[in-house]
Design goal:
By secondary structure, this protein is an alpha+beta fold. It has 1 helix and 3 strands.
Length: about 70
């Protein structure tokens, strides 16, 4: 099993998602939930393609943190 951080951003009229650990693996959706669901499917397909091509699956090294400022 693999675990990857995804970033979801609000865009013009929709949402986009990507994973810093999987360059080129992106998805969009009309809602945040749809973008997340589409990204999950995109990651599954991306990983499956890497395995089929006998390429290594990258390890997740990204993390996120919120900071508060005054």
């Amino acid at each position: 099993m693999h675990r990857f951080l995804i970033v979801i951003e609000k865009a013009n009229g929709n949402y986009s998602a990507y994973s810093p650990d999987l360059p080129g693996c992106v998805a969009t959706g009309k809602t945040r939930g749809e973008a997340e669901e589409n990204m999950h499917e995109a990651i599954e397909m991306h990983i499956k393609g890497l395995i089929e091509d006998n390429l290594p699956v990258p390890e997740s090294t990204s993390f996120a943190e919120y900071v508060m400022v005054k």
